Amino acid sequence: MGEDGNNRAYGHKTFSRSRSHFTDRITADGRDGWPVAAGRYRLVVSRACPWASRAVVSRRLLGLEEALPMAVADPIQDDRSWRFTLDPDGRDPVLGIRFLAEAYEKRETDYPGGVSVPAVVDVPTGRLVTNDYQQLTLDLATEWTALHREGAPDLYPRDRRDEIDAVMAEVYEDLNNGVYRAGFATHQAEYERACTAVFRRLDALAGRLAGQRYLVGDTITEADIRLFTTLVRFDPVYHGHFKCNRWKLAENPVLWAYARDLFQTPGFGDTVDFDHIKRHYYQVHSGINPTGVVPLGPDLAGWTSPHHREELGGRPFGDGTPPGPVPEGEKVTPRGRPA
Is 282 a catalytic residue? Predict the structure, then answer.
């Protein structure tokens, strides 16, 4: 979940990730009142946020770009929440709002919680539908199938769900969320517990991936998406900014090759904006980086170097096909991308 605007407090109080408050689901049968429908909803994301980036990757792999249009927020928040200053006149051109908080307010007046991404907004009413980052991508894979592109992969295969869920739960606890617990720790013991768990999980994942190309089975699944969005941020921000610095991702042969393999797979690296990632973490988290200085490194050229993971076999898209070219309006700008 993207941070909620209380950014100066990070590093000064014990970190606890809020649960999603709006957990309505958009389903094929519309049982929560929100039926799947092409063009009805708008996905609001930040390319800086790993939780939102899961949805960006899933949406692209499944070919939902036209069915679920996307709004990209400025990576730099202010106290009024995620803002649309990347768009002309500082307003989202479809929703007509300046801040994502306005969609939250239409859903629940004086909502006391944080304003987070990813968020799905109902275009006709301008109301927030859901900010349930854990369920959203699972529903894109299973409830939106009628709108998937031809050749879309099965990212949450029914016969593998128990194993996928187990892997994702471990990765979430120790790694996806663990880097935040380390980075926002307020005392040494709290930091050491979190950082130790981060690297214990990374070591276990390296062992798992040493002999298989993907986390579960021989195709890309939701588990790989959730691991990738943390790994791609590891050296640029988590290693330094969050003090997870026992070693860099680029120093682990297995995980570095695995991350590069996914990065070079259509639907993954073409959604990544390193400039947004670095500016968000280093400039927004003023509680732990009060100067707002953004580091120049690391060198990003290695992301496009050969990984040789294809030697392990595997079929990235299973019986499906890669997604097509990135839509013109969604291409990531060259700044901050590997050469």
Answer: no
CA distance 108 to 39: 23
Q: Which among 41, 104, 180, 214 is annotated as catalytic?
A: 180
Contact (CB, 8 A) for 39 and 33: no
**Which pLDDT score is estimated for 262?**
98
SS3 call for 81: strand
Catalytic residue among 41, 49, 244, 258: 49
**What is the Cα–Cα distance from 132 to 26, expressed in whole angstroms?**
11
Q: What is the pLDDT of residue 339?
A: 46
Annotated active-site residue 258? The verdict is no
pTM of whole model > 0.90?
Answer: yes
Confidence (pLDDT) at 276: 97
- Three-state DSSP class for 196? helix
52, amino acid identity: A
Residue holding tokens 């927020």?
A: 73
Instruction: Report d(CA 1, CA 26) in Å as an integer.
Output: 19
Residue with tokens 């590891």: 234
Q: Rounded to 10 degrees, what is the CA torsion of 201, 202, 207, 210?
A: 150
d(CA 319, CA 339): 32
Provide CB contacts within 8 A for 185, sequence distance 6+. 14, 15, 191, 194
